[in-house]
């Protein structure tokens, strides 16, 4: 190995702390601060750009909804306001009001049933008058997309004598549960907000409001014995106030769908007897010219395949012009033999090597497969002409944003699915399918692992071909395939790919109007390409590659499908060397280089622009400033609307700086060093390294103190006097473990040259892939005084053939093709599997280590943690294992996140700062004390 060349360079401009001079009386963060630490959620701007709303939410407790003018005049502050939305006319705000956290907590303590838990309310705020109206006990609500019309459903009445449902342990029970035919109805209220009028309807089970707000359709299930309410499907005319019964009878009504004008309605319904073994659906339609809806497609119709019916689970959707009606069809379910005696028959899963999918995958997707349906189209205005677009062979398709388009893009992976077990994704063939004739035309002759997409107008299919290393288009009109980028002088895939798989393309930004051009990314720049001819220009004029700026773009107006010819684009840019973020601007028709707008040590959320104004809404944050809400018209002059986490000024925060060094093999390396705000170069600090792939791009992201899923809480540790180092790691295929050694250890060695690093008290922490690397690193060096490995793999030979139970797929693809980076099968590269498995080098370990391995981990087999623990225990090494019951790969339950956060700080404080050991670390907690003693208190006599 070549002699190491190690040096470190701090970024010239260190990220500023909250104040130039750190007050000595600032206190370190502790675990009590978590619950009240705030974040901004769900910011929105009105269509006219005059109003803004956002929520401020503590991590635990009651949030607050703020409604303001764009000039920062506060209009309303609603405690527990949530999920707010502006009306289309910018005159009203509708929002949920959550029950008080304390009330919900008490109900949970009392173990109340879901129906007895505190319920949401609904609020409506009039922006012009300031009037606030509240409605109690609301289950759901809908606001019309293009009108100030609101409909909301109350909670169903609680039936005290209701019997508990039996578990869905048979296919019939599961299918019946999906139909949910007997759910109780609840009151539906329809509000015409400008008119101030309302109507209420009883026993409603489902409802849908039209986009223009002119009608509301709803299904009714009449209570037993009711004389006043009749089951059926109804439509309410909002302006006229009339009610029409479109379909009569008890049954299941699903997928209510209006056309864009609110002049047509379609839905699926079945009205079979409750005990029927098979309950196929029919498709209903009305244009409101008659009193009732008619069945336009029913089971057994000649247009359908034999034993097929309209599906109750497929999305029903009209085309933009209302001419086409898209919906799903499906084979009729096979009736279950009810004469079988359940306890006399075996229950088992049969795995067959010819199966398209492994049994765990099939079981995981069982509900989805029971609901699987196949896209079809029907023309209600053309005599109900019917065309089946999908089938069992061609079962995944995509409509264009312009649903009037003649063609849909359909994909098939038939006969290619088994290889996904080790390749990670199935190869697919794409077809252009006509919605007028059903004709299928193959787009690519050979199956590819590409991600295909359809242009907004439906004129082109677009994909990246790994073999040809180029983007291609397929023109719907001419059926011509064009290589769009093969002759361009740059790569359009990940130039830094370090996995044994084809590099991923950088992607597509957006399309222009009428599909005239598509904006495609390379590593730095954006290219504007004519999909018909392949004519291409560097839209950002090469500025990105020249200045090491990475340009990216997304359309900021909600639901806007394409870029207009006169649009000015605000291009997000990151300086890939300084990691700073900012914006440049350029018109879509312009030829000059993008113009600088702003750049700095900050992070931005995606921009949101008002639909009918140029006002922009976004959040902006830095290392020391939380993500607050801003409005602007040009991103230069901005108005700050929120100011969260004022309490932060009382705590010792942290700074962040880029560090650079050269690894032993001569690679240029980058990482981030976090220091306490009160850092004193005359003192020595313990250092903890935390890593997961590459993290330096996020240097300017605000990191709030929060209970951890098992990662390192950087804010907590830096505030408490630790240096935290996050090195970027680049990998050599076949050597994931040694690659971690190459980058992590050399980075730590470089930092140790600074007199303020306590080289005798170094720690490492990682979760998942990072946990594996922690386990590997402690077999290669004894420089670390403490280590923490969350959900690690230690034995690649046993993990290779395991199952990711969360998805049901095999883990083989990870090792052969993706993150684990071995690059071959276990029998092809046996030595690499053994060499990179920490298990076989555990006798070398001298570092005390804590392992987290949870028994419901759906990504890493939790027995990997057990192997590591039992083998280190057998070797007499200091090791602990935390097994959170019923928990996932990353901790989900907040109480468990809080618990592990306390233990993690206790562990490193003990080994890196000499703090007394807690009981769980010193003597452990026996099973007989589980649930009564958590062992967090300091051990008597300082035990260990």
What does the oligomeric state look like here? single chain
Enumerate the spans where pLDDT stays under 50 for 5 or more consecutive residues: 1-21, 158-164
Count of separate DSSP helical elements? 15
Share of residues in helices: 10-25%
Overall pLDDT: 94
Q: Looking across the biggest beta sheet, what order are the strands in?
A: 46-47-49-48-50-51-54-55
Share in β-strands: 25-35%
Rg, rounded, reads 30 Å
Distance between the termini: 39 Å
Let me know the largest β-sheet.
8 strands, mixed
State the total count of DSSP E strands: 55
Shape: globular
Structural class: alpha+beta
Architecture overview:
The chain has 944 residues and is an alpha+beta fold. It is built from 15 helices and 55 strands. The strands form 12 sheets. An 8-stranded mixed β-sheet has the order 46-47-49-48-50-51-54-55, with helices on both faces.
Sum up the structure in keywords.
eight-stranded mixed sheet; globular; 944 residues
Write the layout of secondary structure elements.
Blueprint: E1 38-45, E2 51-58, E3 64-69, E4 74-79, E5 81-86, E6 92-97, H1 101-109, E7 121-126, E8 132-135, E9 138-143, E10 149-154, H2 171-179, E11 186-192, E12 197-209, E13 215-220, E14 232-237, E15 243-248, E16 252-258, E17 265-270, E18 282-286, E19 294-297, E20 308-310, E21 317-318, E22 325-331, H3 359-364, H4 366-370, E23 374-379, E24 385-388, E25 396-398, E26 407-412, H5 420-423, E27 429-434, E28 440-442, E29 453-454, E30 460-465, E31 470-475, E32 481-483, E33 508-511, E34 518-521, E35 526-529, E36 536-538, H6 543-547, E37 549-552, E38 568-575, E39 581-587, E40 595-600, E41 603-604, E42 608-609, E43 616-621, E44 628-632, E45 638-640, E46 654-662, E47 668-676, E48 685-690, H7 714-719, E49 723-727, H8 736-752, E50 757-767, H9 769-777, E51 786-790, H10 796-799, E52 803-804, E53 809-810, H11 812-816, H12 830-835, E54 849-852, H13 863-874, E55 879-882, H14 894-913, H15 919-922
Parallel strand pairs: 48-49, 48-50, 50-51, 51-54, 54-55
Antiparallel strand pairs: 1-2, 2-3, 3-4, 5-6, 6-7, 7-8, 9-10, 10-11, 11-12, 12-13, 13-14, 14-15, 16-17, 17-18, 18-19, 20-22, 21-22, 22-23, 23-24, 25-26, 26-27, 27-28, 29-30, 30-31, 31-32, 33-34, 34-35, 35-36, 37-38, 38-39, 39-40, 41-43, 42-43, 43-44, 44-45, 46-47, 47-49, 52-53
Helix pairs in contact: 8-9
């Amino acid at each position: 190995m070549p002699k190491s060349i190690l040096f470190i360079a701090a970024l010239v401009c260190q990220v500023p702390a909250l104040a130039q001079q750190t007050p000595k009386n600032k206190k370190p963060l502790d675990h009590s601060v978590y619950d009240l630490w705030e974040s901004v959620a769900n910011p929105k701007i009105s269509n006219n750009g005059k109003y803004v709303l956002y929520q401020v939410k503590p991590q635990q407790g009651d949030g607050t909804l703020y409604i303001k003018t764009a000039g920062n005049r506060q209009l309303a502050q609603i405690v527990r306001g949530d999920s707010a939305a502006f009306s289309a006319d910018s005159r009203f705000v509708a929002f949920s009001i959550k029950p008080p956290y304390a009330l919900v907590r008490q109900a949970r303590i009392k173990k109340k049933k879901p129906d007895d838990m505190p319920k949401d309310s609904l609020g409506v705020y009039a922006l012009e008058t300031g009037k606030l109206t509240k409605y109690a006990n609301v289950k759901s609500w809908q606001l019309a997309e293009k009108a100030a019309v609101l409909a909301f459903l109350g909670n169903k009445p609680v039936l005290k004598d209701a019997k508990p449902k039996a578990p869905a342990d048979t296919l019939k029970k599961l299918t019946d549960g999906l139909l949910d035919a007997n759910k109780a109805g609840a009151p539906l209220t329809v509000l015409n907000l400008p008119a101030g009028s309302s109507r209420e309807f009883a026993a409603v089970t489902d409802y849908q409001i039209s986009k223009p707000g002119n009608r509301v359709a709803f299904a009714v299930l009449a209570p037993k014995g009711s004389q006043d309410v009749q089951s059926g499907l109804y439509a309410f005319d909002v302006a006229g106030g009339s009610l029409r019964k479109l379909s009569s009878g008890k049954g299941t009504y699903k997928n209510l769908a209006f056309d864009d004008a609110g002049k047509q309605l379609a839905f699926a319904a079945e009205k079979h007897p409750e005990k029927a073994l098979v309950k196929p659906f029919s498709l209903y339609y009305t244009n409101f010219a008659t009193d009732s809806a008619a069945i336009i497609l029913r089971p057994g119709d000649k247009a359908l395949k034999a034993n097929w019916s309209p599906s109750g689970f497929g999305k029903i959707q009209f085309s933009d012009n209302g001419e086409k009606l898209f919906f799903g069809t499906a084979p009729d379910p096979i009736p279950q033999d009810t004469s079988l005696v359940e306890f006399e028959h075996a229950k088992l899963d049969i795995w067959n090597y010819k199966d398209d999918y492994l049994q765990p995958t099939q079981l995981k997707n069982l509900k989805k497969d029971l609901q699987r349906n196949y896209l079809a189209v029907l023309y209600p205005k053309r005599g109900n002409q019917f065309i089946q677009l999908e089938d069992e062979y061609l079962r995944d398709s995509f409509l264009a944003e312009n649903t009037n388009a003649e063609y849909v893009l359909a994909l098939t992976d038939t006969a290619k699915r088994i290889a996904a077990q080790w390749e990670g994704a199935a190869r697919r063939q794409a077809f252009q399918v006509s919605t007028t004739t059903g004709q299928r035309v193959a787009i690519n002759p050979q199956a590819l692992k590409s991600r295909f997409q359809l242009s907004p107008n439906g004129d082109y299919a677009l994909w990246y071909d790994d073999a040809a290393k180029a983007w291609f288009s397929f023109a719907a009109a001419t059926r011509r395939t064009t290589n769009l980028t093969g002759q361009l002088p740059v790569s359009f895939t990940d130039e830094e790919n370090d996995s044994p798989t084809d590099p991923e393309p950088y992607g597509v930004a957006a399309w222009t109007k009428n599909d005239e051009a598509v904006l495609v990314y390379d590593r730095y720049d954006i290219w504007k390409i004519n999909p018909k001819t392949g004519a291409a220009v560097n839209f950002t004029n090469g500025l990105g590659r020249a200045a090491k700026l990475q340009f990216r773009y997304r359309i900021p107006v909600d639901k806007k499908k394409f870029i207009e010819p006169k649009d000015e684009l605000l291009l997000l840019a990151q300086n890939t060397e300084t990691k700073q973020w900012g914006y440049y601007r350029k018109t879509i028709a312009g030829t000059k280089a993008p113009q600088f707008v702003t750049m700095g040590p900050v992070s931005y959320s995606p921009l949101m622009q008002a639909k009918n104004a140029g006002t922009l809404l976004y959040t902006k944050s830095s290392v020391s400033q939380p993500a607050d809400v801003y409005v602007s018209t040009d991103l230069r002059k901005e108005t700050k609307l929120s100011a969260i986490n004022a309490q932060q000024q009382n705590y010792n925060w942290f700074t962040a700086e880029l560090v650079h060094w050269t690894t032993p093999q001569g690679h240029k390396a980058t990482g981030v060093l976090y220091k306490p705000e009160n850092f004193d170069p005359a003192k020595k600090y313990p250092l903890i390294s935390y890593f997961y792939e590459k993290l330096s791009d996020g240097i300017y992201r605000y990191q709030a103190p929060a209970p951890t899923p098992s990662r390192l809480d950087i804010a907590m540790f830096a505030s408490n006097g630790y240096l935290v180092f996050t090195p970027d790691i680049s990998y050599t295929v076949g050597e994931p473990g040694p690659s971690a050694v190459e980058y992590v250890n050399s980075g730590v060695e470089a930092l140790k040259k600074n007199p303020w690093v306590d080289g005798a008290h170094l720690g490492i922490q990682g979760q998942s892939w990072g946990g594996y690397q922690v386990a590997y690193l402690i077999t290669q060096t004894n420089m670390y005084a403490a280590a923490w490995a969350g959900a690690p793999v230690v034995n690649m030979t046993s993990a290779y053939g395991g199952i990711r139970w969360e998805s049901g797929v095999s883990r083989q693809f990870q090792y052969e093709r993706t993150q684990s980076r071995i690059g071959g099968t276990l029998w092809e590269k046996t030595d690499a599997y053994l060499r990179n498995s920490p298990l076989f080098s555990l006798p070398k370990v001298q570092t005390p280590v804590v392992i987290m391995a949870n028994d419901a981990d759906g990504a890493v087999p939790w027995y990997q943690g057990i192997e590591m623990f039992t083998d280190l225990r057998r070797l007499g090494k200091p090791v602990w294992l935390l097994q959170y019951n019923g928990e996932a790969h990353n901790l989900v339950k907040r109480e468990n996140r809080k618990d592990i956060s306390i233990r993690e700080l206790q562990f490193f404080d003990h080994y890196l700062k000499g703090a007394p050991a807690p009981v769980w670390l010193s003597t452990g907690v026996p099973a007989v004390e589980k649930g009564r003693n958590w062992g967090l208190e300091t051990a008597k006599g300082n035990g260990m």
